[in-house]
Amino acid sequence: MQYPKIILLIEKKFNHIIVFLLASLIPIFSFGQKLDVVSKPMKIDIQENFGLNTLPYKNDARTKKIDSKLLAAMSSFEKGKNMSSDKTMHVEGNKILIQAYAKSVNEAPALLKSLTSMGMTHGKVYKHVINGMLPFEKIESTMDLASMRNISMVVTPKNNIGSVTGQADQSMKTSQLKNITGVNGSGIKIGILSDSYDDLGGASAGVLSGDLPGVGNPNGFTTPVEVLEDFGPGIDEGRAMAELIHDVAPGASLAFHTAFAGFASYAAGIIDLRQAGCDIIVDDVFYLAQPYFQEDIIGQAVNEVVADGAMYFSSAGNQANNSYDEAYVPGGFLFDFGGGNVYEPHDWGGGDYFYR
Question: Coil, helix or strand for 186?
């Protein structure tokens, strides 16, 4: 007499499983099977639209120590491609900005020395991380460095850049404060981290116009900006920040260090600015590769200077319209990039599948 109940229970359980399986197959039935697969629906430049093509290095033994993107960049350079025009990486002549990780903090100095002997310039180390400009032809040789865990290229970071003339002095009422109290920032030193300071060569003109402190400043603020390390090419956003700060606190001393030469350079720059006497340090930089859920060496450097008594401020950023929020529009066909990589593209409008 108990069999019907048992059978009914089993049927119910199997029904749930069957419904789940059918639901999981719906995307395949509705999108995958009825769509034409096209190998090349249009002429595309893989690197232009998707960045460096790393597919050829999927099973490459060298990726145990060398990142596939760095191998792809090396290959493109060897084929004669103009790498300096690629804004996602920093290339000057035959050198690319790299980030190498030592197997331990104690081994980092030896790794820096080894990379420098291979022709690396602008070498900077913080804890176990090293940045510098390494010749393309030496990338593969790093496989033999016992002190190195791995090496990758530095993906160019972003600035949180404003698009209008700064009015901070007025909006914060600091202009009134200066008139009433006579306080102008004297006795304070402010450190700035950004891309570059004088790569475009306008700093001297900024001093003469009164926008920057230095010899020749018409308002008597003659202490020049202390440039600890500059790095180009850049848009001199660091100098723009210095001009804005000088508007608000013209009596303050200023110092600059690039944050665009990799994690180690960025973190070391924070420490260097504090050691140079900066009471306040500011930046407008974010690396897309920075971790979201734990502190990297940049965050650790910030903690170090704050614990030493400095104040640190990083721009929160306002990306405004630099985002996209719309319903997915299926392209109606599948891209076949080879190697089992088949995707249905989103139609951004008018048959544009790359959002140019």
Answer: coil
β-bridge mates for residue 98, sequence order: 132, 153
Q: Is residue 335 classed as helix, strand or coil in its secondary structure?
A: strand
What pLDDT was estimated at residue 159? 65
Question: How far apart are the C-alpha atoms of 307 and 290, rounded to whole Å?
Answer: 22
CB 131 within 8 A of CB 123: yes
How much is the CA Rg of the chain, to the nearest whole Å?
27
Instruction: Express as a percent the part of the chain with pLDDT over 70.
Output: 81
Q: Rounded CA gap, 151 and 270, in Å?
A: 23
Listed in sequence order, the DSSP H helices in the chain are 3-27, 46-50, 68-78, 108-117, 168-171, 174-181, 203-208, 237-248, 263-275, 297-307
User: How far, in Å, CA of 83 to CA of 291, rounded?
Assistant: 27
> Are 255 and 190 within 8 A, CB to CB?
yes
Omega into 233 within 30° of 0, i.e. cis? Answer: yes
The kind and range of the H/E element at 254 are strand 253-258
pLDDT at residue 16 in the model: 44
Going by pLDDT thresholds of 50, 70 and 90, the confidence category of residue 117 is very high
- In terms of phi and psi (left: phi > 0; alpha: psi -120 to 50; beta: otherwise), the region of 337 is alpha
Query: What is the pairing mode between strands 148-153 and 95-102?
Result: antiparallel
The long-range contacts involving 20-29, CB below 8 angstroms and separated by at least 24 positions, are none
Give pLDDT, residue 292: 76
The two tokens of residue 325 are: 């929020």
Can you tell me whether residue 260 is helix, strand or coil? Answer: coil
Strand 285-286, strand 280-283: pairing: unpaired
Q: How many CB atoms lie within 10 A of CB 332?
A: 13
* 130 touches 151 (CB < 8 A): no
Strand-strand pairing, 342-343 and 333-336: antiparallel
Q: What six digits make up the tokens of 334?
A: 């599948």
Return the higher-pLDDT residue of 230 and 289. 230
Calpha distance 50→345 (Å, rounded): 13
pLDDT at 39: 58
